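BUG-378 | component: ligand-complex export | severity: low

The export step for phosphoenolpyruvate jobs runs without errors, but we want the raw record kept on the ticket for reference. Input record follows.
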Amino acid sequence: MEAIAHREKPYRLAALGSNGARTRVPVRDVEIGGPHFTVIAGPCSAETPAQIETIAGRVLSAGARLFRAGVYKPRTSPYSFQGLGDDGLAMLDRVAGQTMPIVCEALDADQMRLAAEHADVIQVGARNMHNTSLLLAAARCGRPVLLKRGFAATLEELLLAAEYVLLHGNPNVVLCERGIRTFDDSTRNTADLAGVARLRQLTHLPILVDPSHATGRADLVAPVALAALAAGADGLLVEVHNDPARSWSDPEQALSCDDFDDLMSELIVRAPLSGRSVRPAAVARAECLERHRDTIDRMDAAVLALLSERVAMARVVGQIKTGLGLPFLDREREQHVLDHVAQLTCSLSVGARQQIFRTVMDQSLSAEELLAGGILNG
Ligand code: PEP
Ligand code: MN
């Protein structure tokens, strides 16, 4: 029954199979999808070599694994900056391409051919999601494709657009939710995070969220980025600028490099609770050492917060035991906890884990006993 339902989907190749296997898209030494939470960051538009060099250096040190910058800009107004064009592409490749893989949007088949020579991932933007001839060019471009959802496209339309690329020979498609147009204009677009959770049920393709275009406001990027992680996204596409107010395009939504550092640190700490990991490249610079140590301090605080909640739960269990007339000490349960932590996937040795959890269980038992002594109540 389940298998028939899968086969009946109009997007046969993009549909999640009954075995639940998910696609990971390789880009140089990075993989989008799987256990990774991959962050792509950079300016809306490439402007100057110095701007590209500065931002690429900062986002790489913070933990982004791919660099984004537009050179062919699909601007709403013909009077707005349209991007540096072909020259920008060569500049991007020369200045940032040595340090990290590059994502760049192409608006037509000629641009796509040239972009594929310089960039590692080709973006098909929201305005072009329905452009079938561009999708066919993307299928043949020889690079992974980052396909953004159109502002008024249903999830089925997005998946059918992906199906064009898959059907015509390119298996490396990454989807991106970037906000849809709704009646509410309090944000630039409406971030459809329920759509992200739904997409995970429908497709095996990796799914990114672009909190920058989705909200249009720098102060909303971090909360939507964290919500995207919780909703099951495989990563983010974030606009970052070394001088946001002077950005040549989309200045309102660009994060400063410092704010991006802070967001990455928060993502590194929270990703494991969503079953993911954000692994920064090891950049040998003194400021990186300092920043990553700050992140480790935040991780230690998070570990303690979780342990403290774990002990608080033991107190609730202690109250229940009292109500049921059961003793606090339960050797069988203790053994179960030790066996359980030994079986988990974890880089710590089994001995170290069991030592930690013996201590945690001692603390939990004391909390239960204090409760029984009436010292703690509720
Ligand atoms: C972009 O990512 O630079 C862009 C133009 O986004 P979208 O196609 O989502 O508007
Ligand atoms: Mn932009």
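Assignee comment: Attached the raw record above. The pocket of manganese (II) ion (ligand 2) is lined by residues 44, 213, 239, 249-250 (CB under 6 Å).
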